[in-house]
Amino acid sequence: MTNDASSTKATAQGDHSAWKEIVARYQKSSVPRATWQIINTVVPYAGLWVAMYFLKSISWWLVVPLAIVAGGLMVRLFIIFHDCGHSSYFKSRRANDICGFITGVLSFTPYHHWRWEHAIHHSSSGDLDRRGTGDVWTMTVQEYLDSSRWKKFSYRLSRNPVVLFVVAPVILFLVLNRVPKRRAPLRERLSVYFTNLALLLICGGLAWVFGWQAYLIIQLIVLVVAGSTGVWLFYVQHQFEGVYWERSENWDYAEAALKGSSFYKLPRILQWFSGNIGFHHIHHLSPRIPNYHLEKCHDSEPLFQTVKPITLLESFKSFTFRLWDEQHRQLVGYGHLRAARIEQEQARRR
To answer: Structural domain tally of the chain?
Structure first.
């Protein structure tokens, strides 16, 4: 079967076997490619920390730009960690777990605990009835209208750009990732404790080498850059014009992947730092495809050419999206609430 034929078959309503055949071609780990990606990420990251150590006594104007670049490399480290969590980075499960734990420590995230939560996100993304785990808090228009003043205030605060993209990532990486969820299984809880112990040793050692004040400033810059970028990427991947949301009875895995996850077409340098995660529609269709095969999969298969890309400039429109309008099946801003209230009042009068 040719690529064109199999892709056409894949788009047929209800035919899931065809797209499974397509993505299966790219679900093959490559030790050389994975190893090279680790080298060209970890070595520069470590090198930047060494350079910052020697430059901090010369000028902080030299240190800060390097810390920003290190934050970009932490995003790339997180993508490697992310792939290990999907058991796609290496063929060996043990290799994935070891690499995942190490890159998880470097990105301040407990490996097994995060993998457990992220699996829930993949199984429920785009399902209105299964929101709340591993996603950005998103209310429907009706839910917002029916909420108390306190809940409305909390929601607006959580969706404020400064809170969502600056404050929340720092709290996530420094605080929330240090505490396991109450319902987390034992292994997942232990991964949090072991990660915390490893971070205590590493951060304590770096604070001793750099001096705690210098280390704190550098680490915060790195975390803010990485965290803010990571949350923005995740936000745009699931909060964009034309996004797919359905109630459980109508939810479809393939539709949720191809229409509920964006194709974020970034400039080449940003694509490199973000580990190809902009091909998120393919990733959600098949998490077993490692990041270093995502672009090849997209370029080779006509099925994925039908997904409209979102450019960097176009993605800023996502700032205006706040609520999901079930009636009109679209993301809207708070300005839409006035019309929704009027429609609701007219419906009651009828």
So the answer is: 1
One digit per residue, the tens of pLDDT, for the chain of length 350 reads 344 444 433 443 344 457 778 888 899 999 999 999 999 999 999 999 999 999 999 999 999 999 999 999 999 999 999 999 999 999 999 999 999 999 999 999 999 999 999 998 998 999 999 988 888 999 999 999 999 999 999 999 999 999 999 999 999 999 999 999 999 999 999 999 999 999 999 999 999 999 999 999 999 999 999 999 999 999 999 999 999 999 999 999 888 888 889 999 999 999 999 999 999 999 998 999 999 999 999 998 887 877 889 999 999 999 999 999 998 899 999 988 887 776 766 666 66
Is residue 104 included in any domain, yes or no?
Answer: yes
Owning domain of residue 169 = 3-141+161-321
The 3-state secondary structure of the chain reads CCHHHHHHHHCCCCCCHHHHHHHHCCCCCCHHHHHHHHHHHHHHHHHHHHHHHHHCCCCHHHHHHHHHHHHHHHHHHHHHHHHHHCCCCCCCHHHHHHHHHHHHHHCCCCHHHHHHHHHHHHHHCCEHHHCCCCCCCCEEHHHHHCCCHHHHHHHHHHCCHHHHHHHHHHHHHHCHHHCCCCCCCHHHHHHHHHHHHHHHHHHHHHHHHHCHHHHHHHHHHHHHHHHHHHHHHHHHHHCCCCCCCECHHHCCHHHHHHHHCCEEECCHHHHHHCCCCCEHHHHHHCCCCCHHHHHHHHHHCHHHHCCCEEEHHHHHHHHHCCEEECCCCEEECHHHHHHHHHHHHHHHHC
Does a structural domain hold residue 148? Answer: no
Please tell me whether the overall predicted TM-score, pTM, comes out greater than 0.85 for this model.
Answer: yes
Is 95 contained in some domain? yes
Domain annotation covers residue 186: yes
